[in-house]
Every structure is written in C-alpha cells, then in structure tokens.
Design goal:
Number of domains: 2
Strand content: 15-25%
Radius of gyration: 34 Å
Number of strands: 4
Length: 166
C-alpha cells in the first residue's frame, strides 16, 4: 500500500512538474513576443517623432518666433518684442469690430448676412502677416504688410488677397 501511495505521489509530482514546465515556457515565449513587439513599436514611434520634428522645423521656417533677423530688427529699435507682437495681433483682430458691410482690411464684401472676420493670423517677419478670413460661406487669405510710424502706431496695408471659390 505504501508503495502505491509513493508511486501515485511520484506520478502526481511528475505531472505537476510537466504542467509547470509547459506553463512557464508559454509565459516565457509570450514575454519574448511582447518585448519584440515593443521594440518595433519604439522604433516606429522614434521614426514618427523624427518626422514630426521635421514638420515642426518646416512649419516654423516662416514664423516670427524663429526669425532672428526680424526679432533683432525690433530689438534694435528699442521695442519689447513679446509685447509688440501681442499688440500687433490684437490690433489686427480688433479690425473685426467694424460698422457697415465692408471690412477695413478685407477687400471683399460678405455674400451672406454675416460679417467677414479675420480668423487666424501668423506674423511672418517684421513686415508681413498672413491672415485668413471668412463670412461663414466664403473664405480666403491675405498678405498684410504692417509698419510702425514714428509715434509707435501700427499701420496695416493689404498687399495681396485671395478669395477661394465655392
């Protein structure tokens, strides 16, 4: 009887060890697969980051924030550049508050009952701004020249404009 109990215990132990071995092998293979997948994902994300950095560099090429010559132009004249850029943007957006049907800067008249407004602007350098405008149905873009007179007042003049077709 004792021999049989030991034999059953031995068989049970062998089965238990076999189960543990198979289970640990599956876990080991699964973890290796996850590591391999994570390595490919990391490489993919690194490539995506490089592409995004290139895009940021290309988009910032025509931006006042990355144009040292324009920045130095206003610094040499004694202006606080950050405050000046905020003033320029606010002055251009304040042009949206007008009476009548004609916008002071946009050379087109609204075809709807709403006013034409300037949506967004980008200061390109110390002389030019690019802006887009819309009346809800039509939209377009314009290149605005800006300058400061001797009194520090801003003057805007539209150099070119484009109204996109419906």
């Amino acid at each position: 009887m004792k021999k049989r109990i030991f034999m059953y215990l031995f068989i049970f132990s062998v089965l238990l060890l076999l189960f543990q071995f198979i289970n640990s092998k599956k876990i080991y293979d699964d973890s290796n697969r996850k590591v391999a997948n994570s390595k490919t994902l990391v490489q993919k994300y690194k490539d995506s980051i490089l592409v995004l950095k290139d895009d940021i560099h290309n988009l910032s090429q025509f931006s006042f924030d990355y144009n040292d010559y324009s920045y130095d132009y206003f610094l040499d004249q004694g202006y606080d550049v950050e405050k000046l850029m905020t003033t320029v943007k606010d002055a251009l957006y304040s042009q949206n508050e007008y009476e009548g049907e004609e916008h002071p800067l946009v050379p087109y008249v609204s075809t709807t009952d709403t006013k034409i407004i300037i949506n967004s602007i980008r200061v390109l350098n110390h002389k030019w701004i690019i802006a887009d405008f819309t009346d809800g149905q039509l939209w377009g873009e314009m290149l605005v020249m800006y300058s400061l007179n001797d009194k520090g007042e801003l003057n805007f003049r539209v150099a070119e404009s484009l109204l996109n077709p419906l």
